[in-house]
Here is the input.
Amino acid sequence: MSGILMMAIAIVVLGGAYLLYGRYLANKWGIDPNAKTPAYELEDGVDYVPADTNVVFGHQFASIAGAGPINGPIQAAMFGWLPVLLWILIGGVFFGAVQDFASMYASVKNKGRTIGYIIEEYIGKLGKKLFLAFCWLFCILVIAAFADVVAGTFNGFALNDAGEAAEKIQANGAVAMTSMLFILEAVGLGFIIKYCKLNKWVNTGIAILMLVAAVAIGLNVPVFLSRGIWHLIIFAYICIACVVPVWALLQPRDYLNSYLLIFMIVAAVIGIFIANPQCNLNAFNGFTVNGQYLFPILFVTIACGAVSGFHSLVSSGTASKQIKNEKNMLPVSFGAMLMESMLAVIALIAVASFASGEAAAQGLKTQPQIFAGAIANFLTAAGLPYSLVFTLINLAVSAFALTSLDSVARIGRLSFQEFFQEDDPAKASPISKVMTNKYFATVITLVLAYLLAKVGYAEIWPLFGSANQLLSALALIACAVFLKKTNRQGVMLWVPMFFMLVVTFSALGMTIVKLVNAFAAGGLTVGTFLQLVFAVLLLILGVIVAGAGIRKLFVKKNEQ
Here is the structure.
């Protein structure tokens, strides 16, 4: 199959899904454009902040995408392009987009509260506590995996065979400098948007100028630091980003990044239609490849791009608190998910364009590098210089991951605080006051994430994928119970819900067996020990929360 044909199929399927299925869900559940949204009702200038649709879309899309829709399809391509493409399209439409829309819808209808509060309201207080513990553990995994991806993208030095810094990596240095400038510019843009009250098109013009300036400076003044130093800098940044008001960093940073990310997708699509790369992957390589089983590995490796539980945390944790009008929920949630599926298809085309061993021969070792190298190859057919495109695509990928880090660190901190929060703040114990302190919650979350990040994202990714997909099943259960108890139809959530439960319990069980075998063989390090503890806890919490939710889903109304 050619790249153009694969791209055309994706555009037709995903575009048609938005126009038909997305609008069907909105009509079925009910959208009230005259309702006062939580962003206005509970506006506090910190988390509840009304924002234009394009700003919230930028936040949602940049936050949910991260490095996931690039890493996942490229890793899963070992099974062949056909199962990967089918799961992206079917999963993206009927699993992921439905979950994201339902999560945001349930949150907006419940004062912008998180999925944890939805569970408390419709399933029970114990369910909420256990779900919050699950979310906190999951957020630590996400922070660790994505922080290591970003540190690798920023790493300024190539290593020799002895593991020592041998030469500078120009592209990584440029990406690192530009990304740091983005952060500073985002703060400035945040103050401009909040206090200058300019027309949104003026704000857009300022954002684009800032973006161009940062790229130009980054390309000409790169910064070269080691991966270890970048780990420390990234975690210091996350520590600040997850406690400051959303208008000061989160919203404007996502606003800036959204233009870069959309540029990347548009450029990639244009490159595919110009170069028309041929697919050098087999359509199907079998149900077992390199000791990995198609089921369940394919469905946990490709999370972002098909269905991802993390999206439910963003939809209900941050984006729902910024929605100005209920009618904006469909494009912001359903639309952003389909855009992410499009990115996953592009990643599949990118890895498929390389012949066996070709990417490694070009020095492209990580998934983001393979993606950037392929897009750069496509656009050289349009006369653009390879080095410039490669740097810009790498920059966009790091922007994805950094934006996800902003959001997930805040969500992890909030989950930790909510777990220890008393019903009556006046009766809170001294221990509860410490645990609910946002600075304490931030530090303890990030310290554990830092320890896991040192293991490397490649080792963390299988556990992250399993936990992520289990979270999607729990979010679907919570939304299904909410829809039932509010007399709305939720049957479209049932197949995704049960399928993801089977997938994730299978994958977590396999992970635990693998880690236990490593322990028996004496190969368990601090990092892998933490993974084993996380895997066992996630499995136990997942079983309990899922069981409580399913009981509520099937109990008769007169028995509730």
User: Anything to note?
Assistant: The chain has a mean pLDDT of 86. Residues 8 and 58 are 24 Å apart (CA to CA). The first helix runs from residue 3 to 29.
